[in-house]
Amino acid sequence: LKLVDGQAVFTPKRKNNRQRETGSRSIRETGPLRLLDMCADTIPKHLQHRFPTEWDSAYALSLLRCIDNFPLKRAADMWDKYEPVRKIAPPMSENTLADVLERLGRDREAQTLFFKDTMPDGCEIAFDLTEIFSTSGELALAEKGRNPEHDDRNQVNIAMACTLDTGEPSYIRALPGSVRDVKALCASLRELKKPGLILVADRGLYSKDNVGEILRSGMDFAIPVKRDSTYYGDVTVGETDFFFWREKVIRHGKTRLDDGLFLYRFLNDEMVMSEDREFLKKVKDGRMSLDACIKAKPRFGHMVVVSSLDRDPEWIYGLYKRRDKVEKRFRTLFSILDSDAAHLRDDDRLR
Predict the structure, then answer these.
(1) What φ, ψ does residue 262 adopt, rounded to 5°?
(2) pLDDT tens digit sequence for 236-288
(3) How crowded is residue 207: how many other Cβ atoms within 10 Å of its Cβ?
(4) How far apart are CA 286 and CA 281, in angstroms?
(5) 326, 128 in Cβ contact below 8 A?
(6) Is the dihedral of CA 107, 112, 115, 116 positive or negative?
(7) Which of the four, 170, 260, 324, 333, has the lowest number of CB atoms within 10 Å?
(8) What is the pLDDT of residue 216?
């Protein structure tokens, strides 16, 4: 209102003739995904080759989970937060990703070929087995089986191999929970086999059948035997043969068997005292008899490795000690499976 000649006059406000912007522009982060995409190297190419219709959603989800491990229902919001890479615009809704998981898991042959594509020739790999427990009645793979926790729930066994140089997974397979450790390796080797590889595994996976299967596949190996193995009587530790491993003295011995395989025996003096202490705790807690402890004592701190390789004992010891990379990958896998627990309703999605 304005006063004009003593009277109040209403003057309407002028309209702003400037054209307003329609819609709002969002600011997206660009650095994290681009960095991860650079680190991925040739993985997207192999993924697209083996899974031409699902690769973009699978790749986008993998990149995002390197940043934050979240459930599938948050994937679309997370993807919108970042500037896309490789000019892909994959569908990222919860239901779509659940279907993608099912289709990926159903194509076992493509999975195996993808891992072979990404696995370097002549590399060293660590193989191990673990289990996940499930109370779902829809998982056919979930069966009664043996496990270190003595848990009587149904379980699914997970076999995995990782390259020792990079720690990258080079094989993964879900197996029925009733499959024993030694049989799991034989079952996996039929898919994993690739000439020139060197396989390292823990003592629970050693058996003559497994050794035969490894050699037939054209691979070399180094696997310790159990403490009650008769191989302990075939090789001794030399008093003057030793090397240092992480400031620890490791004594060693080596011999060749009639079948052409090699035995390596290692003695860690510090492990002798440590194992003696652990066994005495079991005796005190009633979990072991004193006679059993005394019988096991001569082999405290000792390890015998069977191998097809004729190498320096220090090299064989270092090869075996690097197998912990596969255990680290299992921890990552458990975290991912925990996030997707609601969607693991059948065997294909679990795979």
Answers:
(1) -115, 140
(2) 998 889 999 988 999 999 999 999 999 999 999 899 999 999 999 999 998 88
(3) 17
(4) 9
(5) yes
(6) negative
(7) 260
(8) 87
